[in-house]
Specification:
Blueprint: H1 3-31, H2 45-48, H3 59-63, E1 70-78, H4 85-98, E2 105-112, E3 119-120, H5 122-132, E4 141-148, E5 152-153, E6 164-168, E7 171-174, H6 176-183, H7 191-206, H8 243-249, H9 260-268
Parallel strand pairs: 1-2, 1-4, 3-5, 4-7
Antiparallel strand pairs: 6-7
Helix pairs in contact: 4-7, 6-7
């Protein structure tokens, strides 16, 4: 083979390799139409912004089956602050009863290690989400991010120890260290009861309760306490967000449930 033939041979092989690579990339993209990534394989800021909206903005997306047929929950927890198995099972039951998804839902739980802190600000929590989150809304799947933290909320006051917050359209945080501390108090409900109540309550806000993305069918908003229900034994009563309030509102050691008015609102917005 002379020099010219060798050059032609190398060019042909190189072209074939490029063609093969292009075919492989195209096939990977087409095989996962619900991928978080764009055609370049990168999760862009535009994609991420689908899950950086206001609380309640994705209420119908989470509840109804019209656009999003399934839901994925991506839950992170700091080492030693994993929610109890009973809490997870309680939450799965709550989700099953409320979300109208023909393709169901998926639940992922992952441990993380973080530097020791005494408190978390909202900006710090958002920064953690930006670093940890891998799942974003796609064409037919809505994604939810949650994180269980090992320190208190920086916004606590002397008489209000925040147990959880819903802070974006598909994002929530649970201050599990604070939950554990209140669960250890004399005559307190179990940690599972407290943690389940807080988790269900914060997810209720993501579902648009009360009057924050899911319209009220009857007027039951406690406007003095923001987006909460005015029925004192409802899951969405305002006391469920603080340790002091929750200890005073839970009766008989039972997890509060949604009252009839909240359930009617969710059903009217596409839920179960």
């Amino acid at each position: 083979m002379n020099k010219e033939q060798q050059m032609n041979f190398k060019t042909t092989v190189y072209s074939l390799l490029l063609t093969s690579l292009c075919i492989a990339c195209s096939t990977d993209s087409e095989s996962d139409s619900s991928s978080n990534q764009n055609n370049t394989g990168i999760i862009t800021e535009e994609i991420k912004n689908r899950n950086r909206k206001n609380v309640g903005d994705s209420a119908n997306d989470l509840l109804a089956n019209a656009t999003y047929k399934s839901t994925i929950f991506e839950i992170f927890y700091v080492k030693d602050y994993k929610p109890t198995e009973e809490t997870i099972e309680n939450f799965k039951a709550f989700v099953t009863d409320r979300l109208n998804k023909s393709k169901g839902w998926e639940f992922r739980l992952e441990e993380i290690t973080v530097p020791t802190k005494s408190a978390y600000t909202l900006d710090e929590i958002k920064a953690m989400e930006n670093n940890l989150r891998t799942q974003y809304n796609t064409s037919d799947k809505v994604a939810v991010f949650g994180i269980y933290l090992d320190a208190k909320y920086a916004g606590n006051t002397e008489n209000n120890s925040v147990l959880g917050i819903a802070y974006q359209n598909t994002s929530f945080a649970i201050f599990e260290n604070t939950v554990k501390n209140f669960g250890n108090k004399p005559l307190s409900p179990s940690r599972t009861v407290l943690s389940t109540t807080v988790l269900n309550h914060e997810f209720g806000h993501l579902l648009g309760l009360v009057n924050v993305g899911t319209a009220m069918q009857t007027n039951h908003q406690d406007t003095a306490h923001g987006k909460h229900c005015d029925v004192d034994n409802c899951l969405m009563y305002w006391t469920a967000e603080t340790g002091e309030g929750l200890l005073n509102s839970i009766t008989g050691g039972k997890i509060p449930t949604l009252d009839a008015q909240c359930l009617t609102d969710l059903k009217a917005n596409g839920g179960m």
